[in-house]
Hints:
alpha/beta; 22% strand
Amino acid sequence: MNAKAPSCSIILPVLREASLVNDVIDHLRGLENNNETEIIVVDGDPEGTTLTAITRDNVIKLGSPRGRGRQMNAGAREAKGKILLFLHADTELPLNALRLIAAAMKDKRYVAGAFDLGIRSERLIFRLIESAASLRSRATRIPFGDQAIFVRKDYFEKIGGYKDIPIMEDVEIMKRIKKRGDTILIVRQRVHTSSRRWEKEGILRCTLRNWLLQVLYLVGVSPHRFSKLYGHKQ
């Protein structure tokens, strides 16, 4: 007898995340309603250092050429769930995330969605960044990858998945969905992503750089031309 297909596939594109990957898997196993999910870790390191570090069972481990879009597409091809959840390794979901996603996808108006952004830090400046991010994503309906994007698998396949670009693959697919006239839901509950990039690079510098990249992309500059500004690291 065949095992029941999972309702949701959680796809983690990783690169040199050996130190935290098992904690991420434990967190996902602790989510409410996790009995019908599968976890797919896709490593962009040719040496597979993150995959080698995984000690937990029942995890699908894949290697892929580096690039978040490529890695997420590789995970999606292996996924058996009707819903695909693309999760950055340093983004933590709320405990009821799977229930919220399932409820959202029962509404046929929505083909994809994401959560409001939270940042794991007590510093006040991050509350301002969170508020700005929420206002932006609600106004534009174009969430970023660190907001835990989810999408119906059959729809994802129909539109051709993520583009093979070095950066802005999350913005590109959301813009493409909007251009088709389809609807993206922004769930009001927050995910919480790490503040490590802001802390390492400087909050003002990192924020201004992110805004600059968004503007460059929106005015038509190719991501291949400005990806080095981001450091092109997952």
